[in-house]
TrEMBL record, chain A:
Keywords: ATP-binding, Kinase, Nucleotide-binding, Serine/threonine-protein kinase, Transferase. Residues 86-104 have a biased composition (Polar residues). GO terms for biological process: regulation of mitotic cell cycle. Residues 22-41, 415-426, 444-457 have a biased composition (Basic and acidic residues). It catalyses: L-threonyl-[protein] + ATP = O-phospho-L-threonyl-[protein] + ADP + H(+); L-seryl-[protein] + ATP = O-phospho-L-seryl-[protein] + ADP + H(+). The keyword Methyltransferase does not apply. Residues 1-109, 414-485 are annotated as: Disordered. GO terms for cellular component: nucleus. This is cyclin-dependent kinase. PANTHER family: CELL DIVISION PROTEIN KINASE, CYCLIN-DEPENDENT KINASE 11A-RELATED. Gene3D superfamilies: Phosphorylase Kinase, domain 1 (3.30.200.20), Transferase(Phosphotransferase) domain 1 (1.10.510.10).
TrEMBL record, chain B:
GO terms for molecular function: cyclin-dependent protein serine/threonine kinase regulator activity. This is Cyclin domain protein. PANTHER family: CYCLIN (PTHR10026). It comes from the Eukaryota. GO terms for biological process: regulation of transcription by RNA polymerase II. Coiled coil: none annotated.
Length: 485, 299
């Protein structure tokens, strides 16, 4: 009864007859189809056997014949094992051979031409970053909501397709990790210079979220966020990718407490030894490591860990930790927090190009930081942080890049194992999404440096130089900043 | 626990051609005979290799460029020899790969080298300059680009680069078997430099294979096959068991690859013989002329 149409008249024998007829036809069709499939399978099996036999023969006779053996016919993979490969993208799925051994199948992707951007319907504008516009869009065929990032390309660029854009795409394609934004595909417009990255849409970025929150995240939440960010970074570094622009506005978050690293516009591969001629103009000023500010042209993944330190500080205080107005001011803000470098804490810093103009206060070498390695930051700045937390933060914000821990070491830090434990992601509060519909207000965060700009010749004479500047400089580290209300 | 393993492996693996992509190429749809297509692709890969050597690029960049070059022509959505000049795709693939590497090179260097290698009088390559090489250095006027030519070709290079990116869906990642093969050799306890050298020779020759080995097989399989063959040729005894399974390669795949790699020398000789005294068509016009010539001959 249930198979009958709801709209059919129960008492109409004619309709019933028609329905029965239809049912029969359907059944027949299904049977025919099954039969056809069976034949096809059989055929393929035979083919496979034939092929195997041929290959065995080839393998055997290649041992006996000489080098001028005729080229074997091109092997065509059978369509059924191709389907299988498609259905199981998990490469670790063991492939059992006749001998019963488990072979690992490497993950094989495919390539195909870019689809057209018209496959997406643009819904609203989210943001304009230094490398492109981002908008929320709907995939017309699947109805899925995605983020579309249009790459900024200058049509008359002398180098052709900008290397930054290429690196962004290449690194993102390779960095598949739960804490890194997934690049689904690249689509293009009609013109060659319209290139869009299709990525999943996430409701928030950490920067906007922090701006709108009344109170900073709880310690347990901070740990969960930080753990996710660092495990994403650990993966990147394991793939020899430096991000080079970590900051809260590049960390996206969904309403399930998951955080993903985004915006790979500055990312690139590095090696050991590092590739020559790395540009110093990387990382947004407030998150830029001191060795970059002092003009080092040899640097490594440690610069990302400095940025992590700045983000950690920002999660604790809800405000960016080191908001310099320019490079010189940034350096003085850093030294005000960490204390100036000494030959014990950072032996190499004197040889950095911009360190020549730096005049350190003569008393600065005195603080008993000598043995402490690296020195702890002033406790007063972070009143609610535990000792382990302060130790982690101080090591991340170590002036000497060699003293900073690796991402892997960070993950094992006792800070993440002491109470309060990291809060489960599922327990995270949800927030209204600004990117979802409302337009964002412009923020006054400085932009990531533009590629190809001349690295400025910096004069750091004023960092500690002026007597009047000295008053608010080094002293700022002391005293509590407990704000009420 | 499966996720980290797979994501880590992505770095070592390649995108492979699908059966549909292998069964029909854009050129064959456009009526280019399969043997002609294979010849042109072989000559194009040779050209890329030679240009890379002249540009003093390291072999990993050259190898990646050849794989990108090979991928471009595959499948119905790939490039057709009746639309794109082989020399242009080769130059753009090399430029693009070098740009992403630690050893970028300038458009001017690329175009100068290709101008030289494509010159019918000066080129040392058999596939572009069939006449025997003379003792005297070639007259520079036969290969040096004028400023006007350079500017025009530079624009063409940029356009071709964008075309490659679009055709490949920006999939520029190429994993090579070379480094993996050295690790495998160490694991097998083979210390003879002759074997390692032979392995690299096979791997580099396989880049030119008409069987498109680099777009149909993963690097680990290529490495294992090259080691198997090299050890046999050098008379080095490997462990007495099915060691290739340790590196996740089954007997069937190994057998196919070994035969394919062994056939490379014969194939190269046959090509040399086939095109004796003639240049392999490297531009759309030359391809058209060759198709016309074959048509007339067939009548």
């Amino acid at each position: 009864m249930s198979s009958k149409s709801r709209w059919a008249n129960d008492d109409d024998p004619e309709t019933e007859a028609i329905l029965a007829q239809r049912k029969r036809e359907k059944e027949e069709k299904r049977r025919a189809k099954a039969e056809k499939q069976r034949q096809l399978d059989e055929q393929q099996q035979q083919q496979q056997q034939r092929q195997e036999a041929k290959l065995q023969a080839q393998l055997q006779d290649h041992n006996s014949t000489q080098a001028d053996a005729p080229p074997p016919s091109k092997r065509r993979r059978l369509s059924n094992d191709h389907d299988q490969a498609r259905q199981s993208p998990q490469p670790s799925k063991p492939n059992t051979t006749a001998e019963g051994n488990n072979l690992l199948t490497l993950p094989a992707s495919e390539w195909g031409p870019c689809r057209h951007v018209d496959n997406f319907e643009r819904l609203n504008h989210i943001e304009e970053g230094s490398y492109g516009f981002v908008s929320r869009a709907k995939d017309i065929t699947t109805g899925e909501i995605v983020a579309l990032k249009k790459l900024k390309l200058e049509p008359t660029s002398p180098e052709g397709f900008p290397v930054t854009g290429l690196r962004e795409i290449q690194t993102l394609f390779e960095a598949r990790h739960q804490n890194i934004i997934e690049l689904r595909e690249v689509v293009m417009g009609t013109k060659m210079d319209e290139v869009y990255l299709v990525m999943p849409f996430l409701e928030h970025d950490l920067k906007t979220l922090l701006d709108d929150m009344r109170e900073p995240f709880l310690p347990s939440e901070t740990k969960t966020l930080l753990l996710q960010i660092i495990s994403g970074l650990d993966f990147l570094h394991a793939q020899w990718i430096m991000h080079r622009d970590l900051k809260t506005s590049n960390l996206l978050m969904n309403n399930r407490g998951e955080i993903k690293i985004a915006d790979f516009g500055m990312a690139r591969y590095y090696g050991d030894p590092p590739p020559p001629k790395l540009t110093q103009l990387v990382v947004t000023l407030w998150y830029r490591a001191p060795e970059l500010l002092l003009g080092a042209d040899k640097y490594g993944p440690e610069i990302d860990l400095w940025s992590i330190g700045c983000i950690f500080g920002e999660l604790l205080g809800k405000e960016p930790l080191l908001q310099g107005k320019n490079e010189v001011d940034q350096v003085s803000k850093i030294f005000a927090l960490t204390g100036p470098p000494t030959t014990q804490t950072w032996p190499e810093f004197r040889s950095l190009p911009n360190a020549k103009s730096l005049r350190l206060p003569s008393s600065a070498s005195a603080p008993g930081s000598g043995a402490a390695h690296p020195p702890l930051l002033p406790r007063g700045k972070f009143p609610y942080l535990t000792n382990e937390g302060l130790r982690l933060l101080s090591s991340l914000l170590a002036l000497n890049p060699n003293a900073r821990p690796s991402a892997k070491q960070c993950l094992a830090h006792p800070y993440f194992r002491e109470d309060p434990r990291p809060k489960p992601k599922e327990m995270f509060p949800t927030f209204p999404s600004k990117a979802g519909q409302e337009k964002r207000r412009r923020r006054e965060t400085p932009e990531a440096p533009k590629r190809g700009q001349e690295a400025p010749k910096l004069d750091f004479a004023s960092v500690f130089g002026g007597a009047q500047a000295g008053a608010d400089g080094p002293e700022a580290g002391a005293g509590f900043t407990l704000r009420l209300g | 626990m499966t996720a980290p393993t797979s994501s880590g492996l992505k770095f070592l693996s390649n995108a492979l051609a699908t059966p549909e992509q292998l069964s029909n190429s854009s050129s064959s749809i456009d009526g280019v005979a399969p043997d002609l297509e294979a010849s042109i692709r072989f000559a194009g890969a040779l050209l890329t290799q030679a240009a890379g050597v002249y540009l003093r690029l390291s072999q990993d960049i050259i190898a990646q460029a050849i794989v990108t070059f090979t991928r471009f022509w595959i499948g119905a959505d790939g490039g057709s020899l009746r639309i794109y000049n082989v020399q242009d795709i080769s130059a753009a693939a090399l430029y693009l790969t070098a740009k992403l590497s630690f050893q970028p090179t300038s458009p001017r260097s690329i175009l100068n080298v290709y101008g030289f290698l494509m010159s019918k009088e000066a080129s040392p390559l058999w596939c572009t300059n069939p006449s025997p090489v003379t003792k005297e250095p070639p007259n520079p006027e036969t290969y040096v680009l004028t400023e006007g030519q350079y500017q025009a070709r530079r624009l063409g290079l940029m356009r071709t680069e964008a075309r490659i990116l679009r055709t490949l869906g920006f999939n520029t990642h190429v994993a090579l078997p070379h480094t993996v093969s050295l690790t495998y050799l160490q694991t097998l306890g083979v210390a003879a430099p002759a074997v390692a050298r032979r392995v690299f020779e096979h791997l580099n020759a396989a880049l030119l294979s008409p069987q498109l080995l680099y777009v149909t097989h993963q690097p680990n399989a290529l490495a294992v096959a090259a080691i198997y063959l090299a050890a046999r040729e050098e008379g080095v005894k490997l462990v007495n068991s099915e060691w290739w399974e340790v590196f996740d390669v089954d007997r069937e795949e190994l057998g196919f690859l070994v035969v394919a790699m062994r056939s490379m020398e014969g194939f190269a000789r046959a090509e040399l013989e086939k095109w004796k005294g003639r240049a392999v068509p490297m531009t759309v016009e030359e391809v058209e002329a060759e198709i016309e010539r074959r048509r007339v001959e067939g009548e």
